[in-house]
Design a protein that fits this description.
By secondary structure, this protein is of the alpha+beta class. Helix 2 links the parallel strand 1 and strand 2. The protein has a single domain, classed as Glutaredoxin (3-Layer(aba) Sandwich). Helix content is 49%, strand content 17%. It contains 5 helices and 4 strands, in the order H-E-H-E-H-E-E-H-H. Helix 1 packs across helix 3 and helix 2 packs parallel to helix 4. It has a 4-stranded mixed β-sheet with strand order 2-1-3-4, with helices on both faces.
C-alpha cells in the first residue's frame, strides 16, 4: 500500500481524522494544539489523530493528498475540511458543530 492509499484508508475508515504534529494528548505545535481545542470545544471527543512527525511519507503525502501545504489538516466523513484557521472560522459560525453532528 503506498502513502496515498494509506491516507485514503485512514480518512475513509474514520469519521473524524486530524493529521497533526504530535498527538491529541501532546500536540507539538501551536496550530495542532488549537485544532484539537477547536474539535473538543465543538463537542467532538471521538476523533483519530495521525502524528505526521512519526512518518515522513505521511507528512509529505498528506500535503499532496489534499493539495494543501500546511498541517494540521482535518477530514470529516472522508472529506478535507481545512487547517486550524478554517476550523476556527467554521466553529465561530457554528458550521463545524453541524458538520460533526451530521
Amino acid at each position: 500500500m503506498n502513502t496515498q492509499e494509506k491516507i485514503k484508508e485512514l480518512v475513509s475508515s474514520n469519521k473524524v481524522v486530524l493529521f497533526m504534529k504530535g498527538s491529541k494528548q501532546f500536540p507539538q505545535c501551536g496550530f495542532s494544539a488549537r485544532a484539537v481545542q477547536i474539535l473538543q470545544a465543538a463537542g467532538c471527543t471521538d476523533f483519530v489523530t495521525v502524528n505526521v512527525l512519526e512518518d515522513d511519507d505521511i507528512r509529505q503525502g498528506i500535503k499532496e493528498y489534499a493539495d494543501w501545504p500546511t498541517i494540521p489538516q482535518l477530514y470529516v466523513n472522508g472529506e478535507f475540511i481545512g487547517g486550524s484557521d478554517i476550523m476556527m472560522e467554521m466553529y465561530e459560525a457554528g458550521e463545524l458543530q453541524d458538520l460533526l453532528k451530521a
